[in-house]
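STRUCTURE REQUEST FORM
Protein name: SnoaL-like domain-containing protein
Source organism: Frankia nepalensis
Requested output: C-alpha cells
Priority: standard
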Amino acid sequence: MTTIDAGAMRGICLAAKVVAYDATVRGVVAAKDPGLTLAGWDLLAEFVAVDEFERVGTWLEVSNWQEYTEFLTKRVTSSAFDTKLLRISELPGVVYYEVEERHRRQDGTLDVVRSLSVFVFNEDGKICNLEVFLQKPPVTRGALLRADPRDRSRRRRPRRGTLRQGRGTVDL
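Status: completed
Returned output:
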C-alpha cells in the first residue's frame, strides 16, 4: 500500500492534496480484507479536519467524519470500485474533483457514474467539507452512457417555439 504523509504536504497546492487523498483511499481499498474496520481509515484522517468535517452526499444526507468512515467501510466491503480522473480544478480553499466511478457489485452488476466532489479546506489546509454530486444514465430501457462529456448530441434541446436567453426561457 502506498502511504503519503499528509503533514509533509504543507505548502503543497490543494489539488495535489486531493490527488493524494484519493491515492490513500485507493490504498486502503486495495489492502481491504473482510476484517476492514474504522481504524483502516486512520491514514485518510491525516488529510481531514476531523472535528469540523462535514460531508454532504448525493441525497443531501449530512455526515460527520465518524459517520463518513462507517459509510466508506460498508461501501468498500460490499463492492469493488475504481475511479478515473477526468478533471481537477482549484480555487482558493476549494478543489473540484471530477471522476468516472465504476462500481462492481457482488452480484456482478457494473454501475458507472460520473461524480464531482467539492473539497473545501480550512486555513490549516485540511479538508473540512466534502460535497458529492453524481451524474448517471437514466434507468430506462435503451439508456446510453455518453463516454465523451463534450458530445452534446444526446443533450436535451429546447422545444420548438422556445428561445433560451441567459438563465431563463422565453416562449415565442
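Reviewer notes: The helical segments are 14-30, 42-45, 65-78. The chain has three helices and eight strands.
Form closed.
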